[in-house]
Amino acid sequence: MASYLPAQYSVLGHSAPVTGKTAWQFIRWEVVERQVKALQARIVKAVQSGRWNKAKVLQGILSHSCAGKLLAIRRVTENSGHRTAGIDSLPRTQRVGGQTWDTPLAKSMAIEQLQNKGYRAKPVRRIYIPKPNGKKRPLGIPTMRDRAMQALHLLTLDPISETLADANSYGFRSHRSCADAIARCFDILAKKNAPQWILEGDIKGCFDNISHQCLPAAGRDARSYTGRQKNVTAMAQSRIL
Questions:
Q1: Are 130 and 136 in contact (CB under 8 A)?
Q2: In three state form, how does the secondary structure of the chain look?
Q3: pLDDT tens digits along 14-24
Q4: What is the mean pLDDT of the segment spanning 93-108?
Q5: % of residues, the chain, pLDDT over 70
């Protein structure tokens, strides 16, 4: 933790001496978000101008920045599902390096764990969620470190995906909701020459059956690939406990 305290001082709102136990409480999140958004804006500009090498360099800067790691940790520790443990909740004899980040000190020390070098995704914990039709939906719960690494990669990939994504897609998009999709449907269907039919489709078991080999390849084709194929592939192919 000591190695990251100097970097955290740039986003702390406290003039008194700060230790690892107290650093998390004094973080100025508006400064953290401003630093991350500034790098993301530069990535968007690089993509729009076709400077893919610069975009890749900026992605590396963001993934190694203290602000990016802080925001990723806050995302996975302060959302509504942060108490749903992965293999961290298994008996100690069945754990594979699991941890929980439920204290300010643990969150501050977690920054040092978000390193690409030597990183390997841990197995996921499989649970089943009841569906309205009586069936159960399988869900894999990663460890806290894997969730934070996924959130960190998302910060670097989201600017490119939002820049290249279809203008009329609304699923799993930042700053878009069902209301935006409804408004778009109204704009199309309110016209005199509006379509008479609406087709609804669903891919059965999409995320369970999708090819893991195609995902990194699709990223390379879109030039949004960050060069971290091992991490992305390991996350997609994590074992189940």
A1: yes
A2: CHHHHHHHHCCECCCCCCCCCCCHHHECHHHHHHHHHHHHHHHHHHHHCCCHHHHHHHHHHHHHCHHHHHHHHHHHHCCCCCCCCCHHHCCHHHCCCCCCCCCHHHHHHHHHHCCCCCCCCCCEEEEEEECCCCCEEEEEECCHHHHHHHHHHHHHHHHHHHHHCCCCCCCCCCCCCHHHHHHHHHHHHCCCCCCCCCCCCCCCCHHHHCCCCHHHHHHHHCCCCCCCHHHHHHHHCCCEC
A3: 554 555 566 78
A4: 65
A5: 68
CA distance 154 to 21: 28
Here the tokens at position 116 are: 């690409």
pTM of the model: 0.75
